[in-house]
Specification:
This protein is of the alpha/beta class. Strand 4, helix 5 and strand 5 form a beta-alpha-beta unit. A 5-stranded mixed sheet has the order 3-2-1-4-5. The protein has helices spanning about 35-50, 65-80, 95-100, 105-120, 140-155, 170-185, 190-200, and strands at about 5-10, 25-30, 85-90, 130-135, 160-165.
């Protein structure tokens, strides 16, 4: 059976006290191929935009990119046809006993729910997942997060390989970032056309809200 390749980015913060970010969760781009064609086309787009004076030193990052760059990269992702999935947890709805276990426990729960969702989605195709997740900001957080991801993935059957890459080195993570940004804009009631035009056509299913909205 084929391996399902998954590129994952995160949304929000794991700190319950951060009321500016009511949700925490993950979004992913999933494919049966390693995105070679998309990566090639994105590199061509990056060169083309750079010649026009656009600064893409660290690749594509939706929050920071200009409107024209957003549109061009979204068009590329939409045309390539991979599936986007998202699992978002509303932090205020966590039970007190869950909150008492700390922020990293929230991180593990979100990972477990998202991986389980992906396994259920692709079970008929494959039990094997290659999960690529973005690198983490601090050394302490990185160690905790790596341990959490591997612990969660080890709980499932099949073969799950986890790779931690810098987001700027992975076109799949950058694509997931774009789709998550548009999803977040929709949640906030802003600029819904990005979600309607570019995320809805490639969604593998509705956004999963295990703890409600």
């Amino acid at each position: 059976m084929s391996t399902v390749h998954v590129w994952v980015d995160e949304l929000g913060t794991i700190e319950y006290k951060d009321k500016q970010q009511p949700f925490f969760g993950f979004g992913s781009i999933a494919s049966l191929e390693p995105l070679g064609e998309l990566a090639h086309r994105a590199e061509v787009l990056r060169h083309t935009l750079s010649v026009d004076g656009v600064d893409l030193t660290k690749g594509f990052h939706c929050r920071d990119d200009k409107y024209s760059t957003k549109k061009a990269f979204f068009e590329l992702v939409k045309a390539h046809g991979e599936e986007f999935h998202a699992t978002l947890l509303k932090k205020d709805n966590a039970y007190p006993r869950v909150q008492s276990k700390g922020d990293m426990y929230l991180y593990k729960i979100a990972w477990k729910l998202h991986i389980q969702y992906l396994i259920d989605r692709y079970r008929a195709i494959s039990d094997d997942l290659h999960v690529v997740v973005g690198s983490f900001n601090t050394r302490k957080r990185a160690a905790e997060a790596r341990s959490a991801v591997k612990d969660v993935c080890s709980q499932f059957g099949g073969k799950i390989v986890v790779s931690v890459w810098d987001a700027q080195s992975s076109i799949g993570i950058q694509a997931a970032d774009y789709c998550l940004w548009a999803t977040h804009q929709r949640i906030k009631g802003k600029e819904d056309h990005w979600h309607l035009d570019y995320v809805e056509p490639i969604k593998g299913g509705p956004v999963f809200y295990p703890w409600g909205t």
